[in-house]
Amino acid sequence: MRVTQRNIQDSWIQNIQNRLNSLNGVNQQIGTGKRVELPSDDPSGANRIVRIEDVVARNEQYLRNISEAISVQGMAESALGQVGDRLVRVRGLAVEGASDGSNPTAGSLQAMAEEVGGIIGSILQLAGSTYRGEYLFSGTAGETLPYADGQYRYQGDSNALRVNTGNGQTVAVNLPGDLAFRETEARSEQPLAAPLALAADLTFSASDGSVTSTVTLPAAGGPYAPADVATAINAQFQTDGVNLAARVNADGTLSIAIADTQAGGEITLTDGPAGGLAEVLGIPPGTKNVFTALSDLKAAFEAQDVEAVGKQLGRIDRLLDAVTSQRGQLGSRTRNLEFARDRLENYNVTSQTLKESIEGVDLPQAVMRLTAEEQAYQTSLAAGARIFNISIIDFLR
Question: Count of CB atoms within 10 A of residue 253's CB?
């Protein structure tokens, strides 16, 4: 192949064009601050940038989930705090009503009953709190009112809404009402008789909110020591798979309590035929939650039964403990969410820094390269002009 002046000239023009393209590329990098704008600029770097952006986008969704969860739990914690404040007031009324020193009159007891009635109504309103149009304490049954006036059995479900916070972890967002407002135990009003002799077989039924167990204490098995009563009840509970357990307390009273307090469900006791086992054991039947407890206290005030008022004090104390415990768990869960939020935000900041280091321009180095490219370009132009005696007119032809 014969090399002609035209071939050399074309080669030189291509070289000038390449120099110009390189010069423009460096100028653009300096102007945008980015070294990688197209996959062709750096295929490996572009691939890493895409992966980083994908992770950051997922983290942003997790952060939105966490923000929503913190808002929901903040509302629930605030509501339980207000419930606790009202229970403290109720306890003060019960102490006052049961105290011989205060010598309450019929009128004052009636006023206390009316105040307790108002507190029941205000707690019902708190239990009916909503978030984005759904009931906060109804589990996943967000359109169902958890408790209705005069219907003090939980109407929602025990399921918790959960959100993904990254790393395969999910966190419960809400607190079902059968955790928030229940009593965790039903206790006999007096110590058990020791030994307990029965004239006939006696029964009662106990529900944990989803499973019901019918307990029979045969007369032929007696007389029963208090521990034997608890053992017999627990044997039937375990057979039926109900989330309840019986125990004898230090003061000799008998408790039917939620066994796994992390699981939902309310205690409901139903006595057998007249003179059933619950009556003999001294445990009042019914559903056990904040509303029924306060209703029983209100009834004691209305009946001007100072002794019955005093018997409710321990029950109110246990309710306060249960509400405080649930509120504490919400607070702990919120702190864990905040830790997850901080972790994700820090990861995103680190990822953004890494992304910028991959796609960003080292400005001092780019300026040095720009200077070198300009010098090379000018040198090539000058060399070509000398060799080929090219002027601007040649480029316009």
Answer: 19
In a domain, 6, yes or no: no
Count of structural domains, the chain:
2
List pLDDT tens digits, range 51-77. Answer: 877 877 888 888 988 888 899 999 999
Give yes or no: residues 51 and 104 share one domain.
Answer: yes
> What is the residue range of 306's domain?
34-183+289-360
Cα–Cα distance, 202 to 214 (Å, whole number)? 10
Type of residue found at 118: G
DSSP string for residues in 269-282: EEE-STT-HHHHHT
Residue pair 178/209 in contact by the 8 Å Cβ criterion: yes
Number of other CB atoms surrounding residue 70 within 10 Å = 18
183-230: pLDDT as tens digits: 999 999 889 888 888 888 888 999 999 999 999 999 888 799 999 999
- Residue 147 shares a structural domain with residue 81: yes
Q: By the 8 A CB rule, do 294 and 302 touch?
A: no
245 and 114 together in one domain: no
